[in-house]
Amino acid sequence: MYREKFPEPEQVIMIKVRRVENLGAYVSMLEYNNAEGMVMLSELSKRRIRSIKNLIRAGQIMAVAVIRVDQNKGYVDLSRRRVSHEEQQEMEEKFAKSKMVHSVMRHTAQQKPDTSLEQLCEMIAWPLYELYPHAYDAFKILASSAADEVWSKLQEKTGETISDELKEQLISNIKRRLTVNATRLRATVDVTCYEYEGIDAVREALRAGQACECDDAKLQVTLIAPPQYSISTTCIDRAAGYATVEKAMKAIETSITKAGGNFLVHQKTEVVGNDDDQETYADDLDSSSDESDESGDQEGMGELDDDAMEALKNMKVEDDE
Question: For the residues of 291-318, what is the DSSP string, one character each?
């Protein structure tokens, strides 16, 4: 997965246990072409070991720390007991990203019979590991509207010009495989206006928020039950998604306040799962329908498209009693 053939001492890596013996476990270093390493019995746990088979088993995947590396003989001594729980979690996340990068490069190489996987990695992936915290971070940018930034840095780093055909193939594979890791964000706000402009002011405020969307974070403004609305987006770059939703809420607040209305953040921007989001949204619609039956207000609506906006505009706004 990386340019280096062997890891460095004190580095934390991911391994898979191949076989367990009395003196320790022989393992494959998953990030280094499955090169062999060994975890000695004394490095398996800080506690007293009664049975090695109860502590480690063949096929197990875990994070270990590198103690010694002899590249000439190919010996790598590893330690499990020197890895903290936090390091284990960090390494699992890093390994998942590295697998994603390797998968994208492998599929791209299969589409380029005249170029090997190693050549592609030397040209693209490995330099990106040096330019960014992780090549996966660069891939996220390549899947956005700021792809030219990555290509410019890459060409400056390597001095090589990548063909447009290869760029298109790589970005296509990135988008296809990174979509499953997209993050869904949602915030809930209350927007009201009892001045002369009334519902027109609410409509304009919501449109001002919708206008804050960008290519990397498309927004959905949804009516849950008057005066409550949800603002959501599904994006690969979580930071860009947060920034876009926050910008939209600020635009709505500015617009409705200018018209003499009120703005209230009912629920701050947070990550929601697709399944949970659908269930929650369904519950919101159910509760809004119940409230509508009791109060006589209009039922909850879906996305605020042009027809929904027109219906919202024509709603009768009753004076406060």
Answer: HHHHH-PPPP--B--HHHHHHHHHS--P
Distance CA 218, CA 211 (A): 10
Q: Are residues 197 and 236 in the same domain?
A: yes
Taking phi first (over 0 means left), then psi (-120 to 50 degrees means alpha), and beta for anything else, what does residue 222 get?
A: beta
The Cα 218–Cα 271 span in angstroms is 15
Element (H, E) at 225: strand 219-225
> CA 202 → CA 96, 205, 252, 290, 305, distances in Å?
44, 5, 9, 23, 14
DSSP state of 112: -
Are 145 and 196 members of one domain? no
**Full-model pTM:** 0.55
CB 203 within 8 A of CB 309: yes
Look up the domain containing 299 and give its range: 182-314
* 174 and 191, same domain (yes or no): no
Residue 305: which pLDDT band, with cuts at 50, 70 and 90? low
